[in-house]
Known about the structure:
The chain is mainly β. It has one helix at residues 2-6, and strands at 18-23, 29-36, 46-53, 59-61, 68-74, 80-86, 93-99, 106-110, 117-118, 124-129, 132-137, 142-148, 153-156, 162-166, 170-175, 182-186, 193-195, 199-200, 206-213, 218-224, 235-241, 246-247, 253-260, 263-270. The protein has one helix and 24 strands.
Amino acid sequence: MLTALLVSALALVSVPGYAQPTWSPGGKRIAFVHSTGRGAQGRPTRSEIEVVTLGTSRVKRLTNGDGYNLRPAWSPNGKQIAFVRTSYDGSRESLLLMDASGRRKRILVRGFVSRPSWAPDSRRLAYVSAHSLFTLDVRTRTSRQLGRVPGTEAAWSPGGAEIAIGGDCIVYVVGADGQNRRPAEGVGCVAALYTGPPTWSPDGARIAFSSCRLGQSCTLYETPAATTWPDGSWRLLYCCAGPDPDWSPDGRQIAFTCVSGGRSGIHRIAIPRPAGFAPPCGL
């Protein structure tokens, strides 16, 4: 029943514990985090990475314990998934890589890192750690620090020349060498407001991001990647959203987490939104 709700197209559903979607390059599967149980301070007792084949009821679990498995990112060539593993007590964290089948898990970096983002060549990852931007060659496991950034999340552009930075109240764009930083868009900087991980449209023309207030749900927006903030060009897409949208490979959909009434589920909406579309706010 839960799987049927998960894969239903565009429907607003409430499936507990599903979050952090990432599309496969072919657009036929979505990897996501499935959290179950409730322990101390309401934290889940386990979080695993699973994959669903859209239009079917097939779900496959790729991880099994050893900590909270989070923030999956599918490589552009479809062969690998990078993810983050956090110890159950929250004291340790690592960036890992596994085959798309869930086999051959190996640690790339030890330390607290953001959700990883792949370069178009499927060889390098970008991530943020302690407000510094890094790139990592997954074959040699050699990392390169590109400098300090104002956010905590990174997203490599489809063309490979730029990296979007989220986590502050504004989404920034920097060169893939860490230089030439510019603000792309934001919805106003106020207390306890932050942006989640940005996601690029496949043609590199637009960026989607969530604007979140601590302790509350997020709101999903999109903006032209070449905009000069603040010009008001951002557009509201959805009011019930989590901080983890991901654009589909064909550019026609965005998958995201919807959090409403203490429950979360993975949803997808068509892009662009129809003329006169009014986002369903106040859920």
